[in-house]
Amino acid sequence: MPIIFLHGSGFSKEVFTRQFECEQLKDHHLIAIDLPGHGNSPDASDPRLTYSYSGLAQAVLHQLAILNIERCIVVGWSLGGQVALEMLNNVHNVAGVMAFGAPPTTGGALGLLKAMIFSKDLLLAGKAKHTLADAIRFEKAALGEFATGRFVDAIMRTDPKMRPFLSRSILLNTGTNQRQLVEKTSVPLCLLQGEYDPFVRAKYMQSVTGDTLFGGETTIFKNTAHAPFLENQKEFDLLLANFAESVEYGKSSAAPAALSGLENQRLAS
User: Fold this and answer.
1) Candidates 1.20.120.80, 3.20.20.140, 3.40.1390.10, 3.40.50.1820; CATH matching 3-267
2) Exposed end of the chain (fewer CB within 10 Å): N or C?
């Protein structure tokens, strides 16, 4: 069963390079996708429709159909995690979801206030076009000590329409109540949170409940921030491998979804 990786806002599929090289996941079929308006994927032809959690989720489902992937596990970081949570609705295509740095909120401004830590760095996630200084600062906030400048160009390349349209969609509460979705889903779900994430409140994540939560609760990674898949890679890769194994043993394949086109990289071990 393939594992699909979805990156954060402003980043690209290459942020998961270490997962493609790790020992714990070497026997899995790994695929990383550039979301619309990011990396090598085209900008959205209809930003209002595409640049929302639900619009991005539909774009990913279209790409999976092009790849003839009928059933998969979706792993998402930050924005990619919100998109992954949105995909919990697609029980015929999504066998399991792992999300980190991505709080399932009730939607709207109030939902964001409860779940997010507002700062100048977080506000950059809504700024249309980043300057070089903005991009350097945002990479540092997201990746911490793993910010080497590698993703500065990717952050600056991001479609300027993406962040404003996405922010507007979130504030106007046009998408799913993800908190409710998590609590009621029948899809296996693994929520992971860095203890010192500068964007997401760890206490909020600990309050999230759901019958299908892996381990019965959100997994808190000690001494990590917004990028636990880099900051504590060994434990992250092991957690993902264990989650994927538990999902594969209990799930069967189902029918494929519809079509579209995004840039992707593949690894079949």
Assistant:
1) 3.40.50.1820
2) C
